[in-house]
Amino acid sequence: MIPGNKILDNNLLDMLGNQPSLHKLYSQISSVYAVTDPEVHGHIIHTLRNGLERLAESFPWLAGYVINEGASEGVTGTYRIVPTDKIPLVVKDLRDDASAPTMDAMRQAGFPFRTLDENAIAPCTTINIPGIPIGLVDDHGPVFAVQANFMKEGELAVGNMDKSQSVQLPDASWEPGAEIEHQLLKPPVEESDESTKSQGTRPRLSWGYVNFPRTSLKALKSEAMATKPADSDFVSTDDAICAFIWTCLSRARANRLQIDTNTTFARAIDVRSRLGLPATYPGALTNMTYNRSSIGAVGGQSLGSVASDLRNQLNPSVTDLAYNTRALATFLSRCADKSQVLVTGCVDPSSGIMLSSWAGVSLYDLDFNLGLGRPEAVRRPRFFPVESLIYIMPKSPRGDMAVAMCIRDEDWQRLKEDEEWGKFVEFIG
Fold first, then answer.
1. Residue numbers in the chain where pLDDT is lower than 50
2. Which segments constitute the Trichothecene 3-O-acetyltransferase-like N-terminal domain (predicted)?
3. Which of 95, 112, 151, 275 sits in a 20 to 30 Å window from 350, CA-based?
């Protein structure tokens, strides 16, 4: 066996992990468990500590932190993992904190964002701006960290991983083309009158959870299959939910945007299998598909038509995600300033959507041997508002699915007034 410190002697991140936009960017997830006996708190902490120690022994890079080297003016440098002796574990007892919700209050409210502020319950923040030291992410970024929060009748475990964590590159004859044009930052353009209500006024944004009950998921999938084009063989439940959100949100936005306003749906895709890599590969192997239309067209199409358009972008004969990912990695390997790459850079957040689905991640099956059974809820904690960022949460044992959305307050209001939206969606907040 090779000692962990030797494994990490030269642990440079893979090329996709060298995107500056991913450094100190964390994917946070919280699992909420009911705790009926406070006497088990010691057992929970002991189990977590032992588990993290074993995890660090088997996967030493999880106990490291990411540093940036060789950066200078116009040069973003490289990123690598430096070893440490343990994975950070933060423990907070919030039972006597009057501002902290009780488990029963969270349960009755449906586990909304307002009860899940990352500044209180997470070991660090999702977005960490360079030069602004915050908590664990001060001068470097831990690869992985966990925080256990004890509240009255409950326990909330939050884990995260730095997303800046092998791809065969095209040969030297490759030149950048259309396959990456949507992922390169463009010079800023003057905002239209529709994008903001007045010069210098930022729109009011809010994170909110909505819930799709099991019956709604089944009904939307059935409607999408019934209204899809004849030449479309299949649409998934994920396709149907994405299409439903895009159509309803486009109708809501038509109240403040012209119907011919462009809208882009950017969807994060796991490309490991397309590149012949195992599902357990820990690097940042995701790419995006992009669907483009107009606010009016999307809002007026059938659910099946929009869902089929989204599904079509996953067809290798339409979008070769394996080749596109290799092309992106090649571009990153050749350019000194990698900050010009931003996979959502082509999305106008006032009209588009940036979505990541965790529906297939079986987090509700994880009890971590805490003796508490399965979590009652799995949620992403609330963080800095990013307009049009949407996450589909893992499907619960009941068969329902929560969706986290950050949109303008006026768009929220229009959605709540939308009859079709209200027929299938429960607002949590």
1. 1-8, 165-166, 189, 192, 194-199
2. 25-155
3. 112
Give me 54's structure tokens.
């074993």
Here the CATH number for the domain that contains residue 373 is 3.30.559.10
Which of 108, 96, 82 has the alpha carbon at shortest distance from 11? 82
33 and 101 belong to one structural domain: yes
Please give the tally of structural domains in the chain: 2
Burial class (CB in 10 A: 0-12, 13-18, 19+), 373: exposed
Q: Encoding tokens for residue 420?
A: 């079709």
Q: Report the distance separating Cα 158 and Cα 303, nearest Å.
A: 35
Which ranges of 158-302 would DSSP assign to H, the alpha helix? 214-227, 237-253, 295-300
Structural domain containing residue 224? 205-428
- For residue 65, give the H/E element and its range: strand 65-69
Look-up: residue for tokens 């994920």?
A: 238
Is residue 173 in a domain? no
Q: Write down which residue in 153, 179, 196 finishes a domain.
A: 153
CA angle 380, 201, 345 (to 5 degrees): 55
pLDDT for residue 38: 87
Among 136, 153, 170, the domain boundary falls at 153
- Cα 217 from Cα 237, distance rounded (Å): 7
Question: Is there a contact between 300 and 260 (Cβ–Cβ < 8 Å)?
Answer: no
Shared domain for 266 and 373, answered yes or no, is yes
> Same structural domain for residues 241 and 350?
yes
Unique residue bearing structure tokens 């997470």: 122
Q: Which helix (H) or strand (E) holds 330?
A: helix 321-334
Q: Using an 8 Å Cβ cutoff, are 377 and 111 in contact?
A: yes
**Structure confidence by residue, pLDDT tens digits, 68-119:** 888 888 888 888 888 888 999 999 999 999 889 999 999 999 999 999 999 9
Closest-CA residue to 79 (of 35, 26, 21, 123): 21
